[in-house]
Amino acid sequence: MVRTMTNASTEKLQCYVVVIALLSNGFHFIVDDLATELRIPTVKLGQICKSTGCQVIVTTAARDVDADTTKKGKTSSVRKAILTAPIEFPKERQLPKRARQ
User: Which residues are 81's β-sheet partners?
Assistant: First the structure.
């Protein structure tokens, strides 16, 4: 019997990995590096980071001390997830109400 993981359990596991990365790196990490390790798109990992309460900011690697992604002096943009206090979770979108006839 072959067991497969559902999409919900896969996203839950990825969320746990984000929380562990936050705890191990002082409540911030580089999203691009973790996305390549997990083999998922950076945009999807950014959405997971936002759902855990992180702010995803884009910085240049030349200014960022933690980023080791500079290539021969060239600057590149790096996405960084930071957990700040107070935590702001994304708000649910509300559909506009229909006018009654």
Answer: 29, 56
Domain ranges of the chain: 27-66+75-88
> What pTM was estimated for this model as a whole?
0.71
Contacts of 11 (CB under 8 A, 6+ apart): 48
Tens-place pLDDT, residues 2-61: 889 899 999 999 999 999 999 999 999 999 999 999 999 999 999 999 989 899 999 886
Q: How far apart (Å, rounded) are the C-alpha atoms in residues 17 and 1?
A: 27
Who's near 61: CB < 8 A, 6+ residues apart? Answer: 67, 69, 70, 75, 76, 77, 78
Q: Which two tokens mark 13?
A: 């596991």
